[in-house]
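Notebook B, p. 112. Complex prediction, attempt 2.
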Amino acid sequence: MATSFHNPSCHHCKDRFSSIFCKAEQCNLDQIAEAKVCSVYRKGQVIFHEGAYPFGVYCVNDGKIKLSHSGDDGREQIIRLVRDGDIMGYKALLSNERYTATATALEDSSICFIPKDLFLNILQKDASLSFEMMRILSSELRKAELKITHLAQKPVRERLAETLLFIKETYGLEADGHTLSVRLSREEIANLVGTATESAIRLLSEFKKDGMIELEGKKIRLLDLAEIIRTANLQE
Amino acid sequence: MATSFHNPSCHHCKDRFSSIFCKAEQCNLDQIAEAKVCSVYRKGQVIFHEGAYPFGVYCVNDGKIKLSHSGDDGREQIIRLVRDGDIMGYKALLSNERYTATATALEDSSICFIPKDLFLNILQKDASLSFEMMRILSSELRKAELKITHLAQKPVRERLAETLLFIKETYGLEADGHTLSVRLSREEIANLVGTATESAIRLLSEFKKDGMIELEGKKIRLLDLAEIIRTANLQE
DNA sequence: CCCCAATCCTGACAAATATCATATTCCCGC
DNA sequence: GCGGGAATATGATATTTGTCAGGATTGGGG
């Protein structure tokens, strides 16, 4: 199981201005800070499992997480990349159903857990918090619908380029200004794009040959951003 | 433009127990009933356009609506089918951005319009309403993520069978217990499945040959539901 | 440091699906 | 009821993408 340690204060959390709690009322933040439990998960560890019942929401203090569906034939589909300040597990909680996705740490991560009753309770009382929750849900829904359209209409090549840009937007670049600051396996990239691993590998090689990117193990350096954007063929 | 007529009362609306407003407080319902404008849209008419700014939410009193993205090359992707009691246009409103989808009437429909300020205002005050809003958003998000996984992993044949079941779940059957009670063009079905029109037509013909369905113009009769479910290959 | 299992890569091939072309049918307005 | 344009249907073909196979590389644990 994950190691848990003394709770860091929510009031000094580095994500307090960007997370869902940025507009929550002070007294509610106090309650959350009191009740939450913060744990460290190692790379590869599962935070929650598809099919399990939720007992609260998770708020990422520091780390990178993937949320994925396990498809019929067992193939994984990554549906979201989670970063510092993001919460996860809220969908299941709000609709009072089981998790539809599995959360797995992409690297060692420290994650706070907020018990269900408290979270729902505060959500009822705090209009700012619940409005922020709706804003997040709307934005996720918008992204999901766009992804549906692209999956249905765009070829793998364009989707791969788009995925590289998406990873960059989500986790940013390393100090060199080019390297994606997350290490994903080719299979994970394929499961993000929605294609076969071999196709992802092949296209990454092509991108490299065309000078758009540079590959070094799991490091991916974006060399020609303009060309990647062009390849992604975004219109909206 | 759509014909508008004297507002029907929200308190006697046939959808008042199933819509988002089912748990709203009485006084807020009064305000909405007061301010809303109900209009009739003819089949094919657009209720709102992708790219436009929202001025309120729409609540379907009676009718059938499709919400669709217009993809890069102009091909349409249908992302939602809307029925009596559903609301639409809330995503854009909540995130204060422009519509990302176009709403088009699939048949003559009467639709109520609730002004933005009032809706947002009541959402702030009425915890039950905002909780219901979150529940709806969660459920839509869940469906969208499932659709992403299926688009990425399931062949067209399975997705078409699934789409037929989805249409049945959404709009139900006619009195005969077999005919889908909505008329969609083959192209619309294809745009729901996420495939080429010809592929949808071809597979529908196969389904017919296999005795799963019966086709008569735009009427689709589901004859062998068990076999359709088997073909859809649902696991979750 | 070395080995073994994972992962990554590449080619050949097969399958799924889209595209193009062409009937055929349907349905709407006159 | 009768054109005519749109929607539907079907075949031929091209393209995209997935699958399978085998080899190269890598990285983590002993």
